[in-house]
Amino acid sequence: MTAAATGLTAAGVAGTAPGERGRASRKESISALLYLLPSLIGVLLFLAIPIVVVVILSFFHWNLLNPARFVGGSNYVDIFKYDGMGHALLVTCYYVILNIPAQTVFALLLAMLLNRKLPATGFIRVIAVLPYLATPVAMALVWNWFFDPTTGVINTVLGMFGITGPAWLSSQGWAMPVVAWANIWQYVGYNMLFFMAGLQAVPHDLYEAASIDGAGSFKKFFSITLPLLRPTLLFVLVTGVIGSFQVFDTVYVMTNGGPGNATEVVNPLIYKTAFVGFRIGEASAMSVVLFIVILAVTILQFAYFNKRTTYEMT
Hints:
Blueprint: H1 3-6, H2 10-14, H3 18-57, E1 60-61, E2 69-70, H4 74-81, H5 85-114, H6 121-133, H7 136-146, H8 153-160, H9 175-200, H10 204-212, H11 217-228, H12 230-245, H13 249-254, H14 266-275, H15 280-306
Antiparallel strand pairs: 1-2
Helix pairs in contact: 3-15, 4-15, 5-9, 5-12, 6-9, 7-9, 9-12, 12-15, 14-15
Protein name: Sugar ABC transporter permease
Organism: Microlunatus elymi
Main location: membrane
């Protein structure tokens, strides 16, 4: 449809009175606000207000039965002094370090492999994504059975080669790597989808020009593929790190923080403090600390990638 067909011309727009333009702009703003209103209400009710309430509760002592009592910042002192928050943060960071690099590398390698024209790639893509569709609790129960020291598949296979497998989830050294592996296995296919979308957006002309210049596969990956995948990599890392810091169900089902407190990550500790120990103030303080840690790590990731990523507007 042309401007002439609609009767709208540049001269007509330029000739609109300032008052009319102002009214039109206000109508557009009101329309946009009405469209956004449901989402804004959702963010306000389920995100902004709960965050404010948790921050306020972190300065009170409250056991759900008696009235809340203001205690200042003592909850923040107590959670590091008595409640093992420092240990839980370290264990959570250990889980993130085990989980994120392996999950990202496996997903990228799988995406690069399945981005080629190979037989049955469509079927393999579906198989790779299937674990993500299952609930973390179901996956945790399956891996619990796989790693059972007496009847599990892993130790049975090792036994065929004369190797005696350890009691995986009862070992302080093996428990966290096993939990991390369960999460890696579930989310590799999910992250692969984003990397495949990113790979398909890379212009093939660049690879052809690099081939003419004599560049090998290694050179093409680090000079073309990886730089152009940085926006995708940023998304995968940010969402993966946030999800890993908030891990709950997999750890709770597979080890419940054990053996000892070798897998005691922050979120289950918050749950136990709030709804087993009925110490809402301390649990709220833990939540605030975890929020600050996640926010700081996310800002660092954005700062790192923003200096090294360019975006093309087409």
